[in-house]
Amino acid sequence: MKSIYSIIAAVSISLLAACGGAAPEADHNSPIAAKPKGALRIMSYNVGAIGKFVDETFTKEDNVKLLAQTILESQADAVAIQELDSCNTRNNYFQLKAVADVCGEGWDYFYGPAIDYRGGKYGTGVAAKQKSAIKTLYIPVPVQEKREARVLTIAEYKNYVIACTHLNGGDPEQVKFINTEIKKLYGDSKKPVFLGGDMNAFPDSDMMNEFRKEWTIISQTAEGTTVVTVGKPCIDYVLQLNNKAKPAKVLGSAVVRKANAGDMKKASDHYAVYVDVKL
């Protein structure tokens, strides 16, 4: 099995070779809408352990490259990423670092392991085109008996906080826990706090209604966000905490179903969802 170093090197070299020695600039002819001037684009993306559709013709290196190029093409500033392996026997490399490295210089990242898995870790992470975070932490999220452990991953930057989680469906107690912990940390803060995640919950579910007690859903909810469940409602979201920060002005939100980077149905079994805000 290839190491993290060989995968990162292979992907980085192929990307640089294809783009004349530098990471690609934002593609203004992209099917992804251009980011409005002065906006912060926040994305949530369940990447399915970067391997849902890997085969002989679409390698792990191809998958890493496709995800990174999609993030760049989308002009995302901060990404909450779910289902990330770290150095286990399923994927023997640090997936979050691999994606951030291919995105290029200037991308900060932080990983929160949810479980020990096959000799390594499995969890969620955040990546942002920012200087190093002011503060980072991850908080294990309690789960019902015999259900997979979950985690809340948080990175605080100068102008905002970005958090990420991946929840079990049908468990509002997880949401209550997250609400309590985030309010302890940032309930009195004047800094905007954003949470991206695969909540495994429909917009009108008890779980999302529990979130609404402390958060505002700012990403779109009209379109489904999974590849393999055609016609199913949205389960991936970006939210803003209702703290003492001024509510961000929402300029737009969309699901990334098409990109010049490649086939979004091969990138993962979820589509990325983003929201544009002005702070």
The main sheet orders its strands as 3-4-2-1-12-11
**Element order: H for helix, E for strand:** HEHEHEEEEEHEHEEEHE
Number of helices: 6
Gyration radius over CA:
17 Å
Which class of secondary structure composition applies to the elements?
alpha+beta
Low-confidence stretches: 12-27
Question: Which strand-content bin applies to the residues?
Answer: 25-35%
Average pLDDT level:
91
Instruction: Report the end-to-end length measured between terminal Cα atoms.
Output: 44 Å
| Overall spatial form | globular
Question: Major sheet, described briefly?
Answer: 6 strands, mixed
Instruction: Classify the helix fraction into a percent range.
Output: 10-25%
Count the E strands. 12
Outline the secondary-structure elements.
Blueprint: H1 4-18, E1 40-46, H2 60-74, E2 78-86, H3 95-103, E3 108-117, E4 120-128, E5 135-141, E6 150-156, E7 161-166, H4 172-186, E8 193-198, H5 206-211, E9 215-217, E10 236-241, E11 249-256, H6 264-267, E12 272-278
Parallel strand pairs: 1-2, 7-8
Antiparallel strand pairs: 1-12, 2-4, 3-4, 5-6, 6-7, 8-10, 9-10, 11-12
Helix pairs in contact: 1-2, 1-3, 2-3
